[in-house]
Design a protein that fits this description.
This protein has strands at residues 2-6, 9-11, 17-24, 32-38, 45-50, 57-59, 67-72, 77-82, 91-98, 112-113, 117-121. With 123 residues, the chain is mostly beta strands. Strand 7 and strand 8 (77-82) form a beta hairpin.
Length: 123
């Protein structure tokens, strides 16, 4: 499956952004999907994950209550709504897919990575 993320940009602290990821190539509903991020000089970290149905979702503690992951299997898309953004959310955000139907919570289960989109939170 091929993944392409979009929607990043520059936003002020407290602002919102919505990232989207379009999938192609395979049956999208066969995969758990997630968002990860990587800041300069830091390791890639888990942000949010969704099971193949979208009924199970998991979030990193650092984004819980601020970010929401959602998927539309009919449109082969997964989104990440990010609210109350903080400077520490600045990173390249990557969408990812796992052949496990469960929501991914670690990069160890990821089989496919998309190209990232830059999110910068700064005044």
């Amino acid at each position: 499956v091929q993944l392409q993320a979009s929607g990043g940009g520059l936003v002020q602290p407290g602002g919102s952004l919505r990232l989207s990821c379009a999938a192609s190539g395979r049956t999208f509903s066969d995969y758990g999907v997630g968002w990860f991020r990587q800041a300069p000089g830091k390791e890639r970290e888990f942000v949010a994950g969704s099971s193949w149905t979208g009924n199970s979702q998991y979030y990193a503690d650092s984004v819980k209550g601020r970010f929401t992951i959602s998927r539309d299997n009919a449109k082969n898309t997964v989104s990440l709504q990010m609210n109350s953004l903080k400077p520490e959310d600045t990173a390249v955000y990557l969408c990812a897919a796992s052949r496990s139907l469960a929501a991914p919570r670690t990069s160890k289960v990821i089989n496919y990575w998309g190209k990232g989109t830059q999110v910068t939170v700064s005044s």
